[in-house]
Design brief:
mainly alpha; 10 helices
Length: about 180
C-alpha cells in the first residue's frame, strides 16, 4: 500500500509564497522551502520537476495576489490612472518582496509589464477607455507617460524614499494626468 501524501502541492506553494513575502525570491530554495513546509525536499520534487517550474507557478500566484489587491483597493477618484497608480504605489510599499519579484524581475515568464498590470480584468484597458471617453486624444500614449511616473513613485516607495500622504499622492497623480493630457 502506498504511503498517504501528507504534503500537498498547495502546502508547498503556500510555504513558498510565505518565504517570498518575508525574504524574497532568492530565499525560495528547496532546503528552505522544505523546512518551511515541514517536509524533506522529496515532496517538492515529486510535485515540481525543478525549482524553475515552482518559481514560474509562484510568479503566477504573486501576480494573482496583486490583481486581488487592486480589485479590493478603495476607489478614490474618477480621474483615469489615479486609482490604479495609487494602488500600485501602495502595493510597492506594503509588499516589497512581491513587488520586486513581479514588477522588477528580469524574468517575467513571457509577460510584459503591461500584461502584469492589466491582468485578466483588463485594468489598464479600462483606464485607457475611460480616458478616451473623457476626451483624451491619445489615451494609450497618456498611459505610457503616467506609467513611467507611477512606476518611479512605486520604486521610491519600495526604497523608503516616498513619503507623500494619500491626499498628496492622489493630487499629484491627478495633476500629472492633467499635465500629460
Amino acid at each position: 500500500m502506498a504511503r498517504k501524501e501528507t504534503i500537498t502541492k498547495e502546502d508547498i506553494m503556500q510555504a513558498a509564497f510565505e518565504i517570498l513575502q518575508e525574504e524574497g525570491i532568492e530565499q525560495v530554495t528547496a532546503r528552505k522551502l522544505a523546512a518551511k513546509a515541514n517536509c524533506s525536499t522529496q515532496p517538492i520534487f515529486r510535485v515540481y520537476k525543478n525549482m524553475e517550474e515552482l518559481t514560474e507557478e509562484l510568479f503566477g500566484k504573486a501576480c494573482e495576489f496583486f490583481q486581488e489587491y487592486y480589485a479590493q483597493f478603495p476607489r478614490q477618484t474618477v480621474t483615469p490612472f489615479v486609482n490604479l497608480g495609487y494602488a500600485y504605489i501602495k502595493f510597492a510599499g506594503a509588499y516589497q518582496k512581491l513587488f520586486e519579484f513581479v514588477f522588477l524581475s528580469q524574468n517575467r515568464f513571457g509577460r510584459s509589464m503591461y500584461d502584469l498590470v492589466n491582468g485578466n480584468a483588463g485594468n489598464v484597458s479600462k483606464e485607457i477607455q475611460t480616458a478616451a471617453a473623457q476626451g483624451c486624444r491619445n489615451a494609450s500614449e497618456l498611459f505610457m507617460k503616467m506609467w513611467i511616473f507611477i512606476h518611479g513613485a512605486a520604486c521610491m516607495s519600495l526604497t523608503g524614499d516616498y513619503d507623500l500622504s494619500e491626499s498628496e499622492t492622489i493630487q499629484l497623480l491627478k495633476d500629472s494626468y492633467q499635465a500629460f493630457k
